[in-house]
Amino acid sequence: MTMETMVKKSKMYLAGQWVLRENLMEVRDPQDDSLIATVPAASTADMLYAIEQAKEGFKLSSELPTHERIAILNRAANWVDAHKEDYAETIAREGSKTIKEARKEVRRCVETLRISAEEARRLHGETIAFDQMPGSEKRFGYYYRFPIGIIGAITPFNDPLNLVAHKVGPAIAAGNAIIVKPAPATPLSALMLAEAFDHAGLPAKILSVVTGNASEIGDALVTHPDVRMISFTGGLTTGKAIMQKGGLKKMGMELGSNSPAIVLNDANISDAVEATVSGAFWAAGQNCLGVQRIYVQEAVYASFVAQFVARTKLYRMGSKLEEDTDMGPMINEREARRVESWIQEAVEQGGELLCGGQRRGAFVEPTVMANVPKTCKVVKEEVFGPVVTIFSVPDLDTAIRESNNVDFGLQAGIFTANLEHAFTAVHKLDVGGVMVNDSSDYRIDAMPFGGVKGSGLGREGVAFALHEMTEPKVVCFQMSK
Ligand code: NAP
Fold first, then answer.
1. Is the fold of 3-255+455-474 the same as that of 259-451?
2. Domain ranges of the chain
3. pLDDT per residue as tens digits for the range 216-226
4. Whose CA is nearest to atom 22 of ligand 1?
5. Which parts of the chain sit beneath pLDDT 70?
6. Has 288 been annotated as catalytic?
């Protein structure tokens, strides 16, 4: 068998049909650049076809009784669960995650789909007291939530399965049609999710997963007037471009961050080290919630830094499919070179490299820095790589001020035994979520999730996405006099 014939030629899921195309995109394993599959490079015509078919899909979806939506979502969850090791291997091969990280993502995807099934039965409205307005005494009514229509979902490479499930699950629970455009680096996991829905009996045309480059199919999806909502997860620059192009439609924007963690004198230092090391280097730092800046109060700074560096040095970087690997490569060598250049900039500006800093191919060592000027990219931009900077701060106020002194605000962590300090941080941190005695990257799939400032607009987390993907319809009966 030649190398060529070992490469899987995957089809894409276009309005319920599995189709091939002559134009192909290669899916490569970032750790050795080996070719693992090809997928169709969809054309603008393919995307327009998906949208056309989704109009009918929306009709079918909105007419599906709730019990059928629930059953389909539960069957899809069961399918993913029954094939969890295949899903995990796919995530680990096409993306950056180690097999252990990938298994966690699969467990969360099952959870996301099961929560979607549960939330489908909780699409509530409420009655309205129309008689609060003089002259409206003889009126009675209520509102209920109805599906928004066709949703365009655009997803990034770093959680290639569960982030897609966070859009597809609520969209189907609400009775919408949805077209997914996955990241070109990691389309296989999204296609496998479509497979789960196909097996679960989702009527054709409700879901499409259209593989291709945004330069060819992005505008067709984003600007089409029949697509009523774009649910985007990705970088700030891309998010802004989509917002500008989209026109009159709903936009969900789940963007990046450079999340802070605050460690106060009264914190349990070893717990804080354990949580923030994992938070900084999970998925090789390619995590929108990853810990990037740590503000440690002066009295415990030296001890925290020593323990953090010692723990980081134990991190095993290597092959993603090995059970004892802690951290894999970045998504490609280009991204790894970018991160390397940002580390170099910080060193040139006087930053101190405490450990790591080296790159080999797409691998960047877990890197810890101190005394980095706050104008450097590794502090003020989103690194999206395995680099963390630690700062010494005199007090909580300074830590909060520095934490907020960036253009992002997704989540933050604070480690303290003092309730007043914890509440002060909760109130003053400019973010979408504060984790007390935990890293910024703590998340469960049922909680509201999203950011402020450059980190986005709107919230995901199944019930919250369901809300965004529906609109209220008001009904008012005028009684006979
Ligand atoms: P990205 O470069 O912004 O790409 C994300 C997706 O957008 C890809 O599918 C990309 O496709 C598509 N895209 C790019 N330009 C487009 C356009 N003009 N119109 C339509 N689609 C377009 O992000 P990434 O590098 O894959 O992911 C990393 C980013 O995602 C980080 O900033 C991270 O923080 C963020 N993220 C946020 C969350 C969250 O929930 N808040 C979660 C995970 C990741 P092409 O590649 O074909 O252009």
1. no
2. 3-255+455-474, 259-451
3. 999 999 999 99
4. 214
5. 1-6, 481
6. yes
Per-residue pLDDT at 441: 97
Question: Is the overall model pTM greater than 0.70, yes or no?
Answer: yes
Residue holding tokens 């691998």?
363
Ligand 1 site, CB within 6 A: 154-159, 163, 181, 183-184, 213-214, 218, 222, 233-235, 238, 241-242, 254-256, 288, 382, 384, 410, 456
Condensed to tens digits (0 to 9), the pLDDT of residues 158-186 reads 999 999 999 999 999 999 999 999 999 99
CATH numeric code, 259-451: 3.40.309.10
Q: For this structure, is 254 an active site residue?
A: yes
Secondary structure, 3-state, the chain = CCHHHHCEECCEEECCEEECCCCEEEEEECCCCEEEEEEECCCHHHHHHHHHHHHHHHHHHHHCCHHHHHHHHHHHHHHHHHCHHHHHHHHHHHCCCCHHHHHHHHHHHHHHHHHHHHHHCCCCCEEECHHHCCCCCCEEEEEEEEECCEEEEECCCCCCCHHHHHHHHHHHHHCCEEEEECCCCCHHHHHHHHHHHHHCCCCCCCEEECCCCHHHHHHHHHHCCCEEEEEEECCHHHHHHHHHHHCCCEEEEECCCCEEEEECCCCCHHHHHHHHHHHHHHHHHCCCCCEEEEEEEHHHHHHHHHHHHHHHHCCCECCCCCCCCCECCCCCHHHHHHHHHHHHHHHHCCCEEEECCCEECCEECCEEEECCCCCCHHHHCCCCCCEEEEEEECCHHHHHHHHHCCCCCCEEEEECCCHHHHHHHHHHCCCCEEEECCCCCCCCCCCCECCCHHHEECCECHHHHHHHCEEEEEEEEECCC
User: CATH top-level class for 3-255+455-474?
Assistant: alpha beta
How many Å lie between the centroid of ligand 1 and the Cα of residue 140? 46
- Which position among 105, 254, 335, 340 bears the catalytic label? 254
